[in-house]
Structure formats: structure tokens, C-alpha cells
Specification:
The protein is an all-alpha fold. It is built from 11 helices and 2 strands. A two-stranded antiparallel ribbon has the order 1-2. Helix 1 packs parallel to helix 3. The longest helix is centred in the N-terminal third of the chain and has 24 residues. The termini are far apart. It binds zinc ion.
Length: 252
């Protein structure tokens, strides 16, 4: 059972990275192989036991061949989700552990890990922050702090938004998103992400007026235009009198 064991090992780590296209290709290869096997099998006179044994060896061999196929390799088959998908506690172990802003959904960076836990970009960010983490944080911290209130925010940044806000804003298909998370092996997108949150843009109108009023009131009340008296005094100081000018020129 050597083949099957190896196959299971590979399968457990790569299952969610097989794209629908790869799956279709694999199914097609398997179908052709099965036809070839049936032709061979019908041309050899194996008894029932031997036939079954042969079929098992054949199945294992096909599985292993398909899994070892270069196009099934993790790095080659992993595709970043075609549309933004929300974060709700799931992490892909073989992807960068940085957090990306991603329309304020603050999702895991989908680049491959290059330096330690991060991709090249996130590792560079982590080297330049006081926390030693990428600008928007580390996805494992985000996972620890995640809850259905959806109020998480990276240090000094705006808080996360429900997925539905982005769905509406970008005109996404929620069905497509549900299909992607299913392919990733995650549970369905939770309800907290499916309710739009109204976000008021800019400063509230009432507050604005109040600020303007208080600004006016704080300023000392005075007549419009320049104060006449002080202006004259200033002018007098700036412009020397004839006597002063003569004194200056004579060097007194
Ligand atoms: Zn990254």
C-alpha cells in the first residue's frame, strides 16, 4: 500500500489547492487511463482475485501519477481568489501570514511565504514597524481577535466592514464567493458578513454647524476692518518724521 499512503499524504495538504480546471483535467486523464486499463484487463486471463489486485495497483498508480503531475503542484495550482473574500477565522497555512487591507476586509495576504512567515513584501514591512509585523498586522493575531461584531481594526486604521458592503459596492456575486470559500474548504460565509452596515461618510452636518458657531464665538468680538487708532500709531512708528529722517542721515 506504499502508493496509497503517499497519495493520502499529499492529498491532505493539497486538497483545497486543486482548481476546478485541474480537477476536470484529472478526471479526463483518469477516464482515458480507465479505458486503457479495461482493454489490457480484458486481454489478460486474470482470475477474480488477481483482477481485483491489479485494479487496486492500477488505481493507486493513477492517483500517484496525477498527484505528482507538475501542474498539480501547490505553487503552480494555487490561485488567489478571483474576487475579494471576507476573513472569518480561516487561515491558509501555506500562504503569507500578513494582513492585507483588501477593501477594509483585512484578509490574509495570498502571496507565497518567502521569508519565515511572510512574503517578500510583508517581510519588508515587518522590518520597518515597531511591532515587527506587517503594516496591517499578522493574520494569526487577527484570527485570535476575530468575532462576529466585525469591529477589528489594525493599530490606528479604520475598522473592518461586513462583506456585504463590499459586495454591494463592487457588484460582486455572493454565490461566487460562497463557491470560492467552499473550494478553500472553509465553512459558509457567516451571517455577520451578509448584512450591510450603513456607513455615514464625512462629518455629520449638525456637528459641522456647531463647530463653525463655536469658532466664531471663541474669537474676540470686534468691528469689521482695521482698528483705526492702532493703525495710525503703527503707521507713525513705521514712517519716521522729517526731523527723525534728518537725524538719521546726519548720523546722530
Ligand atoms: Zn504578504
Amino acid at each position: 500500500m506504499k502508493y496509497l499512503k503517499e497519495y493520502d499524504g499529499i492529498k491532505s495538504t493539497t486538497m483545497y489547492t486543486i482548481s476546478p480546471t485541474t480537477k476536470r483535467t484529472n478526471d479526463m486523464c483518469r477516464k482515458i487511463s480507465d479505458e486503457i486499463f479495461d482493454i489490457i484487463n480484458s486481454n489478460i486471463n486474470a482470475d477474480e482475485n488477481e483482477g481485483e489486485k491489479l485494479k487496486n495497483i492500477y488505481n493507486e498508480a493513477v492517483n500517484l501519477t496525477l498527484m505528482n503531475n507538475k501542474s498539480n503542484n501547490i505553487k503552480n495550482t494555487f490561485k488567489k481568489p478571483r474576487i475579494p473574500i471576507p476573513f472569518y477565522g480561516f487561515i491558509l497555512d501555506n500562504r503569507c501570514f500578513g494582513v492585507k487591507k483588501n477593501h477594509n476586509l483585512y484578509t490574509q495576504c495570498m502571496n507565497p511565504k518567502v521569508e519565515g512567515m511572510y512574503c517578500k513584501v510583508c517581510a519588508k514591512q515587518a522590518n520597518n514597524t515597531s511591532t515587527g509585523k506587517p503594516v496591517y498586522g499578522d493574520i494569526t493575531d487577527r484570527k485570535d481577535q476575530w468575532n462576529e461584531q466585525l469591529v477589528w481594526a489594525p493599530e490606528g486604521k479604520t475598522k473592518e466592514v461586513p462583506y456585504m458592503n463590499i459586495v454591494k459596492k463592487m457588484g460582486l456575486q455572493i454565490g461566487q464567493a460562497q463557491q470560492i470559500v467552499e473550494e478553500l474548504g472553509w465553512g459558509p460565509i457567516p451571517n455577520c458578513h451578509l448584512e450591510e452596515r450603513k456607513i455615514r461618510r464625512g462629518r455629520p452636518k449638525v456637528k459641522n454647524v456647531a463647530v463653525e458657531d463655536s469658532d466664531d464665538e471663541n474669537k474676540p468680538k470686534r468691528k469689521r476692518g482695521r482698528p483705526v487708532g492702532s493703525f495710525k500709531k503703527k503707521e507713525k512708528k513705521k514712517e519716521p518724521t522729517d526731523e527723525e529722517l534728518i537725524a538719521l542721515l546726519c548720523g546722530e
